[in-house]
């Protein structure tokens, strides 16, 4: 198997090393793992592409490249340049430092890389490690992803739904904020929503007196609706969420016929 991996935390991020281990096990001795990842951290860029400026891609080693762009840029660079001789069989994005459950998925560069791969007709999966008190200060905060990532992906490749339609399915996997031995299993779950917990801004002044705004987040331990991704993660399960890039609110189409 020929696997491309990327992320949004940058090419030197510890989560990318975890994903390299997972991808190497998945590819097998006859397979290949290619890395095309951002040269610098790109958290929160979602599905951004560098449409108005060029990007430099530098080779860092065998099948290892750093791109001055977003995760979606990295996928484009890989498919259409770095790996142009043979497309990847699978694109993996992550392992993100922090969860991409619930509304976080909408902002996530990790998801943006997987989404672009799906739009390019590739099988794609985003992987993220939920952080919390039980893992944050441990020697290996990525332990749950490291030990459960490979078997979870193998199950998904064997039994998952992979479509070749215009907006093909890709997957969002989030590992719970627990040591690997305390993970209870895998749950297929819809995307949740953390109410009253959106992003905001906080004004600050620099030493020179200039006014700036820091974007602020919110606590990640508040549960979402029962059975959704973040709810399952906080209950100790790995969540697997099938997604599409189609943003149409299909449930509203029929009701809107009245305006035609």
Automatic annotation (TrEMBL):
Its main location: cytoplasm. Binds 1 divalent metal cation per subunit. One of its GO terms (cellular component) is cytoplasm. Its EC number is 3.1.3.5. Keywords: Cytoplasm, Hydrolase, Metal-binding, Nucleotide-binding. SUPFAM superfamilies: SurE-like (SSF64167). It is found in: Cytoplasm. Gene3D superfamilies: Survival protein SurE-like phosphatase/nucleotidase. The keyword Lipid biosynthesis does not apply. InterPro entries: SurE, SurE-like_Pase/nucleotidase, SurE-like_sf. Belongs to the SurE nucleotidase family. This is 5'-nucleotidase SurE. Its cofactor is a divalent metal cation. Nucleotidase that shows phosphatase activity on nucleoside 5'-monophosphates. The gene is surE. It catalyses: a ribonucleoside 5'-phosphate + H2O = a ribonucleoside + phosphate. It comes from the Bacteria. Residues 3-195 form the Survival protein SurE-like phosphatase/nucleotidase domain. One of its GO terms (molecular function) is nucleotide binding. A divalent metal cation binds at residues 8-9, 43, 96.
